[in-house]
Write a structure and sequence with these properties.
Structural class of chain A: mainly alpha
Distance between the termini of chain A: 86 Å
Number of strands of chain A: 0
Radius of gyration of chain A: 24 Å
Largest sheet of chain A: none
Largest interface: A-B, 17 and 17 residues
Order of helices and strands of chain B: EHEEEHEHEEEH
Order of helices and strands of chain A: HHHHHHHH
Shape of chain A: elongated
Oligomer: heterodimer
Structural class of chain B: alpha/beta
Number of helices of chain B: 4
Distance between the termini of chain B: 24 Å
Helix content of chain B: 25-40%
Number of helices of chain A: 8
Radius of gyration of chain B: 16 Å
Number of strands of chain B: 8
Helix content of chain A: 55-70%
Amino acid sequence: MMAFAPPARHLLRAKDLADARYAEPLGVEEMAAAAGLSRAHFSREFRRAFGESPHSYLLTRRLERAAALLRNTDRSVAEICLDVGLTSVGSFTTSFKRNFGKTPTAYRASFPPASAWAVVPGCVVRANARPRKRTFREDKPPAGS
Amino acid sequence: MKIGSAQLWVQDQEEALKFWTEKVGFEVRADVTMPEMGDFRWLTVSPPGQEDVSVVLMAVPGEPIIDPATQEQIRDLAAKGFAGTVFLVTDDCRADYERLAANGVEFTEAPEERPYGIDAGFRDPSGNAIRLTQVAMSFNA
């Protein structure tokens, strides 16, 4: 038999679901199901427990993840929008700007490029960064061929 | 000075005990009920092989120790996941994840690579967060 759990314990499951599966096509409906409540009742109770609507919690989790991807990867804004479970690049840009004060592109530009942080092993750098010889005669096809 | 025990608020000691011993694989270090203290139950668990440090599975005390409104606040805080976190370390995060998940543990995060190692997260039945980290060798040095 399950011991008594305060109602907030079920709301926490919905919050955990948003944190874990923000990348999937997840909405308030699925969060309500995780808490075992009807959607309207769930939204009211979630807000009472955590001080914001489930929609806002899920969206800000997605935007937080998107900001990290903008800082740490060189993926395009459209890719990142999809990576965090959003489908419209237009609404993503609008929400992002409202929350971070800058468009995704301007936000990214305000940080060092992601390549500055990437830990690429020295052997990979040596193998890939070597310039191809361009100035020697032997690169040219033999005369008359 | 050393750490002996640290406490977690639990909603139900019996449920917490089953969770930590049967699902996580910890062992009971102390389980004593004291009638002269209003049946206060001192219940501690820790991993096999680590007997000198334990987690106290602490029930929220009733009156006169804590008034009903505060009892409610503590239970609510734990249920919301804000009452505390236990940070566990392991040699094999993925293997532990497989074992605990098979036992029905509610994972909030599957094992993921981080700069400091591999870690995962789960909750106890009360709502407390537990991290499970396999610290990268380079971070130990």
